Amino acid sequence: MTSRSLALPAPLVRRAGGRVRPVQRTRLPLWIWVGLVGLTIAALMPVLQSSDAAATGATLAALERERAGLQADVRLLASQVGELTALSRIEKVAGERLGLTPARPTTVLAVDQPPPDRLLPARFLPRRQAALELQPPWWQQVLDVLIVR
Question: What is this structure's pTM?
């Protein structure tokens, strides 16, 4: 009984001239490898671009949602400011919390006469035109005294 090997027979073996010789595998040329890498990159480029576009779109949508929420907050605050600045509410708060009452009518008197002389402080009197007097500087006066002309 002969035992047979369970290995598959090698189809890559040729017989030439009575001897067994292994078949040489040929290597692919470099230009084929470069072409295969280029095709792979070209095939993956749309996938990478759509992935980047989807991420940018998601970020943009999130920012737009945030902006819409902030605009809603601004409108809410503007309506609250409108309510708080209503004249009736201000009168009510001024009377209740601060104890203020509406002002009584005031009387305004117009006086056509000028004020008496020097009974009022100078700041309340009308301004008089001052004459501009040019004086030489102090050092010029000292030189004039020391140097006789």
Answer: 0.36
Beta strands in 1-149 (DSSP E): 13-16, 19-22
How many angstroms separate the CA atoms of 99 and 108, rounded?
Answer: 26
Per-residue DSSP letter, 104? P
Check if the beta carbon of residue 12 is closer than 8 Å to that of residue 22.
yes
C-alpha torsion sign, points 119, 123, 129, 132: positive
CB atoms within 10 A of CB 94: 13
d(CA 14, CA 5): 20
Residue with tokens 């009584």: 104
> In 10 A of CB 125, how many CB atoms?
13
Provide the residue-wise pLDDT of the chain in tens; the chain has 149 residues: 555 556 555 555 554 555 666 667 778 888 888 999 999 988 888 887 788 888 888 899 999 999 999 999 999 999 999 888 888 888 988 899 989 988 888 888 888 888 766 677 777 777 777 666 778 888 888 888 887 65
